Automatic annotation (TrEMBL), chain A:
InterPro entries according to UniProt: Ccz1 (IPR013176), CCZ1/INTU/HSP4_longin_1 (IPR043987)
Domain CCZ1/INTU/HSP4 first Longin, first and last residues per copy: 15-125
Matches recorded under PANTHER family: VACUOLAR FUSION PROTEIN CCZ1 HOMOLOG-RELATED (PTHR13056:SF0)
Family: Belongs to the CCZ1 family.
Pfam families: Intu_longin_1
GO cellular component: Mon1-Ccz1 complex
Annotated protein name in UniProt: Vacuolar fusion protein
A GO BP entry: vesicle-mediated transport
From TrEMBL, chain B:
Ranges annotated as spanning the membrane: none
UniProt-listed PANTHER family: COLON CANCER-ASSOCIATED PROTEIN MIC1, REGULATOR OF MON1-CCZ1 COMPLEX
Positions in coiled-coil regions: none
Taxonomic lineage: Eukaryota, Viridiplantae, Streptophyta, Embryophyta, Tracheophyta
Polar residues: compositionally biased ranges: 484-499
Entry GO CC: late endosome membrane; lysosomal membrane; Mon1-Ccz1 complex
One of the GO biological process terms: regulation of autophagy
Organism: Actinidia chinensis var. chinensis
Span of domain Regulator of MON1-CCZ1 complex N-terminal: 40-157
One Pfam family matching this protein: RMC1_C
Span of domain Mic1: 556-733
InterPro entries noted in UniProt: RMC1, RMC1_C, RMC1_N, WD40_repeat_dom_sf
Protein name per Swiss-Prot or TrEMBL: Colon cancer-associated Mic1-like protein
Amino acid sequence: MGLSSVTTGSDATKFCIFDLRRGQHEGEELDKILFFYPADLPFSTQLSVIGLSEGLITFTRIFSPEAACEVIEAEGHSHVFYEAEPDVWMVMIVEKSKESEAIWRIDALRRVLKEVHSLFMMFHGSIRALLDKEPSGGLVRSHLYTFIMDYLSDFLVGKKLQLPNFRDSLKERGTVQMLTIGREAAIEVQEDTINLFTYAVLRFSPRALSSGLSSWSYLRKGNVSSHAATGSVSANSGAVLDQFYRSSGGDPSYHIARPLQQDKWTKGKDGFLVSDIWKAEAGSSAATTPTIWLQKTEEKVFLCTFQHRNLTLILLFPVISLLNEEQGISLVKQQVLENASLKIVKVEEKLSKGWGGENAYHVSGCRYLLVDGDRNVSRASPPTKVTTLTKESLVALNKLREEVDLEKSRAKSDSPDSDKDMEICIRAKNNAWVIARFTRGKELYMVLEKANETLLYASDTVENFSNRYCNGLFSLD
Amino acid sequence: MFPKASSSQSTTGFSGSDALSHVYIRYPPLRCDIPGARGLFYDDGNKLLFSPTSDQIISWKTSPFSPLVIPTSDSVCEGPVLSIRYSIDAKVLAIQRSNHEIQFWNRETGNTFSQKCKSDSESILGFFWTDCPTCDIVFVKTSGLDLFSLDSELKSLHLVETKRFNVSWYVYTHESRLVLLASGMQCKSFTGYQLSSAGIIRLPRFEMAMAKSEANSKPVLAAEDVHVVTVYGRIYCLQVDKVAMLLNSYRFYRDAVVQQGSLPIFSSKIAVSVVDNVLLVHQVDAKVVILYDIFSDSRAPISAPLPLLLRGFPRSITASSQSSSRNAEDSEAKDLSDTEAIIYGDGWTFLVPDLICDAANGLLWKIHLDLEAISASSSEVPSVLEFLQRRKLEAHKAKQLCLAISRTLILERRPVSMFARAIDILVTSYSYSIKTGSYLKGMKAEKSLPSGVPQVNSPSTIADDSASRVDAYGKSVKHESVSGVHNDSMNKSPTFSGSDSEDNVTIEPLKTSSGDLHSLGGNVESKILMGAEVPSDGVQSGLQSQLLGLGNNLLNSNVTNHQEPQVTSAAVSPDEMYSFVISPVEEEMSGDTSYMVSIIIEFLRSVNSEKIKVHPNLYVLTIQLLARNERYAELGLFVINKILEPSKEVALQLLESGRQNIQTRKLGLDMLRQLSLHHDYVVLLVQDGYYLEALRYARKNKVNSVRPSLFLEAAYASNDPQHVAAVLRFFSDFIPGFKSTSDHNSYCRILAEMNSSITA
């Protein structure tokens, strides 16, 4: 269902996952293919794409055994490589075309690969683990296929995949929108979430809280109203969950849970989101509560999601803390409703009141993106404002970001512990200023159109922005 | 906290072996049995207890209460005594000699004069002195009130005003400045006046409720069934309805008297005391006391009825094995005979607010609350805290109890919501005390005084009267005192002499919303605003100077007075909360940092809602707790959302905790910069290897306090001659005289070596 629509061969984008440890003997080549998009391409074509990629990897490993090739720019295509797990490679091939908006930023594409993999890990565990479980590869292929196709459906525009291109250069995948809230509201939020955990977890196991699990559920307010039910777990908040490193939790069964299916989540009467996605997976034991694996703390946790208007609350609690799953979870839910629901309503009101709307973070005169890489949060000019920029400016910014990405990865390999400070100001052909600034893990990108022509003006603008919105972070004179 | 002599509790005490009580009197009492005494009289205006003899008036100061107080005496003419009162300035002594005559005595000159009723048809029921601006003394007569002023030479009275009614009997207390005049067949119609320094207020006439036992019976209300009490600066009247077995309460407002509901009673004889604004209803027949805190609308008693105990009585030391010297002490200490030691004995008269006069035995007891026992008897932590926060008499102890309760809450890992409610109470109370200034006043008092030392427990100086003497005079004393003291029991006085607002009572305008009743202290405040304060200080100082003038040793009473710390408010500041609750408890809770963090967050929420600042140490502790559990993501959010308010201490702790987590360290650095702590920021930048950024920052913000060698060392450590050269050049250009320093020379040499090694 829904999958076939994506598999039309007319798409110029190809996406494959293969395992270098498999199919190394003649006649067994097909074994190495774990996933291929479009799936209806003939195997010979698939194998030639993978063979080329494999060749490039093998070749570049001669020079750089630790990190083989990241990207190959051919005349008509870009090949983006990502080694998701040792010897498990993900490759994305996109067509280059000046006319059809096909201007890419490699790092943005690679982030898509990273994201799909980390999400997969969270729900199904590592690819290698699935391969080990069933060496024939049928299990992992069926999991990957359904999961990635569900994931890619978010990028579908009509029948075409619309991957992030230069128009998205004032966006940062994998980050959550910065939420500025007053101290009072912040205390309330903290208090509430901690309360939830105190109530929920103390009830079951006092050890749970001290075990190092980050015991705050992430509160986020955003524009997910249209997908309210799905937003919490699907692509929109993938970034949220991205903060938890995950691995396996799946059940060895060909009944594959499809957590990314948007229409499978509904809001229950009690405000908790329910889904029958996991029912299939667990079979007769009828476990309806999703479980995910937090790799950092190596804990399998239940995922409980509560929604009240714009507020989504994610509760994670260790599976081991519950003796009786069904009873335990309903007890947690009951505790939340009894003890916290009033406060949740209060917090939601407070946040909603404090929410200035879509354009709250608009700064007139400039279009910007502010990224805090340390905590995976970002803030940007509202999308409607970004669309007012000319294509030329956006392309120039895209190019600048490519340069910066390169510089960043170079700096990282030179000295992984220290962050470089960096400042680039470019005057584009259309006389727009395109600016990038770096200070210890924080990044600022800015486009100034119809601006004064002096460099001083551009740098003053950044300075003012920095003083006003970033506590002077970028104001290193 | 008190030296509760365990002996007195463990052995056959007055109430048997069961020593549980919330209210107690403490041995030794004030002894006031003088040979030849003709009864005991109480002057609540000056808080003096009188015992007239044939030619003298002996007086004991009862506030501050001390069993060791030395009595003073005035010589007067012989004659019958119905009532005695000093004038407010203590210069004139007034003695009611009969139903028609009151005699006045100028204590300085010895002059006397008398004031008599004009007609035989009226008789004087009693009198009281007043600080009302228009008159000095009020006679209550069967025909109404006569208001007199004293002439400047203190030689005669001038009638200022007469108010005519029929009066059956009256009730007056100096602390309320309120006189209630009973009239009618059943004596249940009342007219009231408040005569205070703010003037005279007439209350509307009102009737008290009386249930009928039969259709035609008409019970008559007696004076002893009506009690005027003052709690939280409000004036109430409590009326015993013996038929309904109810204690009806009425509250007085400026323009109305409003019935406030009834309390059940379990004894036909009821006495009422007020200790530290807690209402004590003595069920005399049942020999128990019930406590009410009528601050809020709740009419529920604070705790179950329990007996009143005598504490500190060294009864058990009579064991034969005791040394002879101890026995000698005992015989003195054991001077309380069995008849004297009877709780709720027949001779007891309750002097409002908190004294008990045992007229038969010539003893005066002061009633104390056992805050520890009261707080231990309830598991409802929030209400206990509220109760304790309202205590002023033993504010220090109440405060310590509050701190202990808070500690226990955490140590027992009670639900966070419970702690939240508790902390809200403490913080609200503190916030209120800051606004009214009572907290700061308390702090001052506490500082200037030594920590809580219990009362001196030695026998009183006049305790050498043998018990047999009491027997000899007992009967007559008792007989006389029944009438005398009884009359005076209407004249109640405050014991707490501090200039506390509670002393200053007035009648407020009626507030229509009953919500006012439990708005914290709101009434007290409004009362003060009305300016109807009573200059009780004046009374006190006047009396003191007079006592000094008589050459009496006041030192004794002063010492005992000052031995209890005079904290006037039990309010707990956030800093104290940190120092005495969170910090000490944290060490014991080290295994459960998550719970501690929740507790701290609750605390911050509560404090923030009252806009009170907390000490950065609390934030520092929070950071330590979070970092200990590696909850850096939360820590980051706490800092970014300014839940942990920026300060240098916080920044330094972030840097310290950030040794294991670079993001946390960055937050510390950012905070230093945002706080404009330029020097520290630059030093740390250099430490982290960002010496070029540090130089730029130092130049921009004119930081000259960092040694150039620090930068040069950092640049040298990077092994980049260009950077060393740049740093050298920077200092040569911007620091005058740098070129002549040893740093310059040595680094020039080092730079040269670096360059040569590269080219080589």
